[in-house]
Write a structure and sequence with these properties.
single chain; about 190 residues; alpha+beta; Aminopeptidase; 8-stranded mixed beta sheet
């Protein structure tokens, strides 16, 4: 991966702002997860009550920045330009591998009340450009449950290609779930 600046990215489109969280966002992150808890539960690992508390996120914001500085993850939060203090989504690039794989894993969520507006496609497109161009990742992997066709549609629109099917792949909401495996390749990848 290329050396990246120590300053975390501030990505934007006319509608959206995408960035790492700051200390001022602690309350808002906890609110996002509490408000969307029931909506997101069928698609995420079982969360402890601590995950929904501000104390957890105070520490997590620091860990996110450390992981970013060590090229281990890029955990982004999505805001509308019109309301830049309210989180509407999350985009996580994790499990960064260097040579010979040069890849990472993508995960995301969007607030229930913001579905169907194209926000996730827009935010992920913007974020992937950063990961491909600035972090010089060759492959981004994203997997979704067959019953989550909405996510499958997002990935297809973004140019992800289905590569396989994994049975009992992840423990989601207390149950082993099959996943469809997809990826997108950086056609402009360059050796360091």
């Amino acid at each position: 991966m290329k050396d990246h600046p120590l300053v975390p990215p501030q990505l934007s489109t006319p509608r959206l702002l995408v960035r790492l969280a700051a200390k001022r966002d602690v309350y808002e992150i906890a609110r996002y997860y509490r408000t969307n808890r029931a909506f997101l539960a069928p698609f995420e690992p079982t969360r402890s009550n601590d995950f929904f508390a501000e104390d957890f996120w105070r520490g997590q914001i620091e860990r996110n920045l450390i992981e970013f500085n060590y090229s281990q993850s890029l955990r982004l939060f999505v805001f509308e330009q019109a309301k830049p203090e309210i989180i509407i989504g999350i985009i996580n690039f994790t499990q960064f591998f260097r040579a010979p794989f040069h890849a990472c894993t993508l995960g995301y969520s969007l607030a229930e009340n913001k579905q169907g507006k194209g926000y996730m496609s827009e935010a992920v497109t913007l974020s992937m450009q950063y990961v491909f161009n600035e972090l010089n990742v060759h492959r981004i992997v994203a997997n979704y449950m067959p019953r989550n066709q909405r996510s499958g549609n997002v990935l297809k629109r973004l140019g992800f290609v289905v590569e396989g099917y994994a049975r009992d792949y992840l423990l989601i909401n207390g149950k082993w779930e099959d996943h469809i495996l997809t990826s997108r390749i950086n056609v402009h990848w360059q050796t360091d």
